[in-house]
TrEMBL record:
<dbReference type="GO" id="GO:0003677">
    <property type="term" value="F:DNA binding"/>
</dbReference>
<dbReference type="Pfam" id="PF07729">
    <property type="entry name" value="FCD"/>
</dbReference>
<dbReference type="InterPro" id="IPR036388">
    <property type="entry name" value="WH-like_DNA-bd_sf"/>
</dbReference>
<dbReference type="Pfam" id="PF00392">
    <property type="entry name" value="GntR"/>
</dbReference>
<feature type="domain" description="HTH gntR-type">
    <location>
        <begin position="20"/>
        <end position="87"/>
    </location>
</feature>
<dbReference type="GO" id="GO:0003700">
    <property type="term" value="F:DNA-binding transcription factor activity"/>
</dbReference>
<dbReference type="InterPro" id="IPR036390">
    <property type="entry name" value="WH_DNA-bd_sf"/>
</dbReference>
<keyword id="KW-0805">Transcription regulation</keyword>
<dbReference type="InterPro" id="IPR011711">
    <property type="entry name" value="GntR_C"/>
</dbReference>
<dbReference type="InterPro" id="IPR000524">
    <property type="entry name" value="Tscrpt_reg_HTH_GntR"/>
</dbReference>
<keyword id="KW-0238">DNA-binding</keyword>
<keyword id="KW-0804">Transcription</keyword>
<protein>
    <submittedName>
        <fullName>Transcriptional regulator</fullName>
    </submittedName>
</protein>
<dbReference type="InterPro" id="IPR008920">
    <property type="entry name" value="TF_FadR/GntR_C"/>
</dbReference>
Length: 238
Protein backbone atom coordinates (compact mmCIF):
# COMPACT_ATOMS: atom_id res chain seq x y z
CA UNK A 1 0.00 0.00 0.00
CA UNK A 2 1.49 3.37 -1.01
CA UNK A 3 1.44 6.62 1.00
CA UNK A 4 -1.50 8.07 -0.91
CA UNK A 5 -3.59 5.02 -0.03
CA UNK A 6 -2.63 5.03 3.65
CA UNK A 7 -3.45 8.74 3.86
CA UNK A 8 -7.06 7.93 3.00
CA UNK A 9 -7.52 5.32 5.73
CA UNK A 10 -9.88 6.50 8.50
CA UNK A 11 -8.25 7.19 11.87
CA UNK A 12 -9.83 5.11 14.67
CA UNK A 13 -11.00 7.07 17.69
CA UNK A 14 -12.07 10.20 15.81
CA UNK A 15 -15.53 11.43 14.73
CA UNK A 16 -16.50 14.01 12.13
CA UNK A 17 -16.77 17.63 13.24
CA UNK A 18 -19.00 20.51 12.08
CA UNK A 19 -17.87 23.78 10.54
CA UNK A 20 -18.43 26.10 13.52
CA UNK A 21 -15.16 27.16 15.22
CA UNK A 22 -13.40 24.63 13.03
CA UNK A 23 -9.86 25.02 14.28
CA UNK A 24 -10.91 24.73 17.93
CA UNK A 25 -13.24 21.82 17.24
CA UNK A 26 -10.50 19.85 15.51
CA UNK A 27 -8.16 20.54 18.41
CA UNK A 28 -10.80 19.49 20.95
CA UNK A 29 -11.60 16.28 19.07
CA UNK A 30 -7.94 15.32 18.94
CA UNK A 31 -7.49 16.29 22.58
CA UNK A 32 -10.44 14.15 23.65
CA UNK A 33 -9.08 11.18 21.73
CA UNK A 34 -5.64 11.61 23.30
CA UNK A 35 -7.03 11.86 26.82
CA UNK A 36 -9.19 8.77 26.34
CA UNK A 37 -6.29 6.71 25.03
CA UNK A 38 -7.73 6.30 21.53
CA UNK A 39 -4.23 6.55 20.00
CA UNK A 40 -1.45 4.05 20.61
CA UNK A 41 2.06 5.09 21.58
CA UNK A 42 4.11 5.63 18.44
CA UNK A 43 1.04 5.99 16.22
CA UNK A 44 1.65 8.38 13.32
CA UNK A 45 -1.16 10.87 12.73
CA UNK A 46 -1.12 11.68 9.01
CA UNK A 47 -2.70 15.05 8.33
CA UNK A 48 -4.66 13.92 5.30
CA UNK A 49 -6.05 10.87 7.08
CA UNK A 50 -7.07 12.97 10.09
CA UNK A 51 -8.63 15.63 7.85
CA UNK A 52 -10.58 13.02 5.88
CA UNK A 53 -11.81 11.32 9.06
CA UNK A 54 -12.97 14.60 10.57
CA UNK A 55 -14.38 15.88 7.29
CA UNK A 56 -12.28 19.05 7.25
CA UNK A 57 -9.46 20.57 5.21
CA UNK A 58 -5.76 20.15 5.97
CA UNK A 59 -5.28 23.64 7.46
CA UNK A 60 -7.19 23.26 10.78
CA UNK A 61 -5.64 19.81 11.24
CA UNK A 62 -2.12 21.19 10.71
CA UNK A 63 -2.78 23.95 13.24
CA UNK A 64 -4.27 21.55 15.81
CA UNK A 65 -1.41 19.08 15.47
CA UNK A 66 1.12 21.90 15.83
CA UNK A 67 -0.62 23.10 18.96
CA UNK A 68 -0.56 19.60 20.44
CA UNK A 69 3.15 19.27 19.64
CA UNK A 70 3.79 22.53 21.50
CA UNK A 71 1.83 21.16 24.49
CA UNK A 72 3.91 17.95 24.56
CA UNK A 73 1.05 15.61 23.66
CA UNK A 74 2.49 14.83 20.22
CA UNK A 75 5.97 14.98 18.72
CA UNK A 76 7.43 15.77 15.29
CA UNK A 77 9.57 13.09 13.65
CA UNK A 78 12.71 13.84 11.60
CA UNK A 79 10.65 13.31 8.42
CA UNK A 80 8.22 16.01 9.70
CA UNK A 81 5.39 13.54 10.37
CA UNK A 82 3.58 13.78 13.71
CA UNK A 83 3.24 10.88 16.11
CA UNK A 84 2.09 9.99 19.59
CA UNK A 85 5.20 9.80 21.83
CA UNK A 86 6.60 6.39 22.68
CA UNK A 87 6.28 4.97 26.17
CA UNK A 88 9.62 5.14 27.97
CA UNK A 89 10.53 4.58 31.59
CA UNK A 90 11.77 8.16 31.90
CA UNK A 91 8.46 9.52 30.59
CA UNK A 92 6.56 7.18 32.90
CA UNK A 93 8.45 8.54 35.91
CA UNK A 94 8.05 12.16 34.84
CA UNK A 95 4.31 11.96 34.17
CA UNK A 96 3.63 9.95 37.30
CA UNK A 97 5.46 12.49 39.44
CA UNK A 98 3.74 15.46 37.80
CA UNK A 99 0.27 13.93 38.01
CA UNK A 100 0.64 13.00 41.67
CA UNK A 101 1.83 16.53 42.46
CA UNK A 102 -0.80 18.53 40.55
CA UNK A 103 -3.76 16.20 40.92
CA UNK A 104 -2.92 15.66 44.57
CA UNK A 105 -3.30 19.40 45.17
CA UNK A 106 -6.65 19.44 43.40
CA UNK A 107 -7.87 16.54 45.52
CA UNK A 108 -6.70 18.37 48.62
CA UNK A 109 -8.72 21.42 47.60
CA UNK A 110 -11.77 19.33 46.68
CA UNK A 111 -11.79 17.62 50.08
CA UNK A 112 -12.49 20.95 51.75
CA UNK A 113 -15.48 21.97 49.63
CA UNK A 114 -16.98 18.91 47.94
CA UNK A 115 -20.73 18.50 48.51
CA UNK A 116 -22.96 15.48 49.00
CA UNK A 117 -24.40 15.71 45.50
CA UNK A 118 -20.93 15.46 43.95
CA UNK A 119 -20.04 12.54 46.20
CA UNK A 120 -23.17 10.72 45.02
CA UNK A 121 -22.17 11.39 41.41
CA UNK A 122 -18.71 9.97 42.10
CA UNK A 123 -20.32 6.79 43.45
CA UNK A 124 -22.41 6.43 40.29
CA UNK A 125 -19.37 6.99 38.09
CA UNK A 126 -17.31 4.46 40.02
CA UNK A 127 -20.07 1.88 39.82
CA UNK A 128 -20.22 2.39 36.04
CA UNK A 129 -16.44 2.09 35.84
CA UNK A 130 -16.49 -1.09 37.91
CA UNK A 131 -19.05 -2.63 35.53
CA UNK A 132 -16.98 -1.57 32.52
CA UNK A 133 -13.90 -3.32 33.91
CA UNK A 134 -15.88 -6.59 33.96
CA UNK A 135 -16.33 -6.46 30.17
CA UNK A 136 -12.94 -4.87 29.46
CA UNK A 137 -11.07 -6.10 26.40
CA UNK A 138 -9.03 -4.48 23.63
CA UNK A 139 -12.19 -3.49 21.76
CA UNK A 140 -13.67 -1.69 24.78
CA UNK A 141 -10.46 -0.28 26.25
CA UNK A 142 -11.56 3.30 25.60
CA UNK A 143 -14.78 2.84 27.60
CA UNK A 144 -12.98 2.49 30.93
CA UNK A 145 -10.72 5.42 30.02
CA UNK A 146 -13.73 7.68 29.40
CA UNK A 147 -15.38 6.67 32.67
CA UNK A 148 -12.13 7.05 34.58
CA UNK A 149 -11.67 10.53 33.10
CA UNK A 150 -15.23 11.50 34.09
CA UNK A 151 -14.59 10.38 37.67
CA UNK A 152 -11.32 12.24 38.12
CA UNK A 153 -12.42 15.47 36.50
CA UNK A 154 -15.61 15.54 38.59
CA UNK A 155 -13.29 15.78 41.59
CA UNK A 156 -10.94 18.28 39.96
CA UNK A 157 -13.75 20.62 38.96
CA UNK A 158 -15.01 20.47 42.54
CA UNK A 159 -11.64 21.87 43.63
CA UNK A 160 -12.55 25.19 42.01
CA UNK A 161 -9.09 26.01 40.62
CA UNK A 162 -9.19 27.64 37.19
CA UNK A 163 -5.38 27.63 37.09
CA UNK A 164 -4.69 23.98 37.92
CA UNK A 165 -7.47 22.41 35.86
CA UNK A 166 -5.97 23.13 32.40
CA UNK A 167 -2.58 21.93 33.65
CA UNK A 168 -4.14 18.60 34.60
CA UNK A 169 -5.88 18.42 31.24
CA UNK A 170 -2.49 18.82 29.55
CA UNK A 171 -1.02 16.05 31.72
CA UNK A 172 -3.87 13.74 30.77
CA UNK A 173 -3.28 14.45 27.08
CA UNK A 174 0.34 13.41 27.53
CA UNK A 175 -0.77 10.36 29.53
CA UNK A 176 -3.02 9.08 26.72
CA UNK A 177 -0.70 6.29 25.51
CA UNK A 178 -0.22 5.13 29.10
CA UNK A 179 -3.99 5.10 29.69
CA UNK A 180 -4.37 2.89 26.64
CA UNK A 181 -1.48 0.61 27.63
CA UNK A 182 -2.77 0.14 31.17
CA UNK A 183 -6.31 -0.58 29.92
CA UNK A 184 -4.90 -3.35 27.71
CA UNK A 185 -3.00 -4.80 30.68
CA UNK A 186 -6.15 -4.70 32.83
CA UNK A 187 -8.01 -6.41 29.99
CA UNK A 188 -5.48 -9.26 29.96
CA UNK A 189 -5.75 -9.64 33.73
CA UNK A 190 -9.43 -9.69 34.81
CA UNK A 191 -8.47 -9.97 38.49
CA UNK A 192 -6.88 -6.50 38.36
CA UNK A 193 -8.91 -3.33 38.86
CA UNK A 194 -8.12 0.21 39.90
CA UNK A 195 -11.68 0.89 41.05
CA UNK A 196 -11.00 0.03 44.70
CA UNK A 197 -8.80 3.13 44.85
CA UNK A 198 -11.77 5.16 43.60
CA UNK A 199 -13.93 3.87 46.44
CA UNK A 200 -11.20 4.74 48.95
CA UNK A 201 -10.91 8.21 47.44
CA UNK A 202 -14.68 8.75 47.68
CA UNK A 203 -14.73 7.67 51.33
CA UNK A 204 -11.89 10.05 52.16
CA UNK A 205 -13.54 12.97 50.35
CA UNK A 206 -16.85 12.33 52.10
CA UNK A 207 -15.01 12.36 55.43
CA UNK A 208 -13.18 15.53 54.34
CA UNK A 209 -9.91 13.75 55.08
CA UNK A 210 -7.57 15.46 52.63
CA UNK A 211 -4.51 13.37 53.45
CA UNK A 212 -6.34 10.07 53.00
CA UNK A 213 -7.85 11.36 49.75
CA UNK A 214 -4.44 12.31 48.38
CA UNK A 215 -3.01 8.92 49.41
CA UNK A 216 -5.85 7.12 47.59
CA UNK A 217 -5.27 9.25 44.48
CA UNK A 218 -1.54 8.54 44.47
CA UNK A 219 -2.23 4.80 44.81
CA UNK A 220 -4.66 5.01 41.89
CA UNK A 221 -2.17 6.79 39.63
CA UNK A 222 0.90 4.74 40.55
CA UNK A 223 -0.84 1.36 40.24
CA UNK A 224 -1.47 1.84 36.52
CA UNK A 225 2.01 3.22 35.89
CA UNK A 226 3.61 0.37 37.87
CA UNK A 227 1.69 -2.17 35.79
CA UNK A 228 3.15 -0.64 32.63
CA UNK A 229 6.66 -0.68 34.11
CA UNK A 230 6.30 -4.37 34.99
CA UNK A 231 4.94 -5.14 31.51
CA UNK A 232 7.87 -3.33 29.89
CA UNK A 233 10.34 -5.26 32.04
CA UNK A 234 8.75 -8.59 31.10
CA UNK A 235 8.98 -7.64 27.42
CA UNK A 236 12.67 -6.76 27.81
CA UNK A 237 13.41 -10.03 29.62
CA UNK A 238 11.73 -12.18 26.95
Amino acid sequence: MNDSQTDNVAVPGLGRVGRASLQQRVYEELTKSLIHGAFAAGQVLRMQAVADTLGVSIMPVREALGRLVTEGALEVMPNRSTRVPLITEARLDDLSRARCLIEGELVRLAAVQINAETVDLLRQQTQACEEAFVRLDAEHATETSVLNNDFHFTIYRAAGSEVLLPIVRSLWMQSGPFVRASAIIYGRNPSLTAVHHHWALIAALEARDAEAAVAALHADITQSFDLIRADMKRAQDD
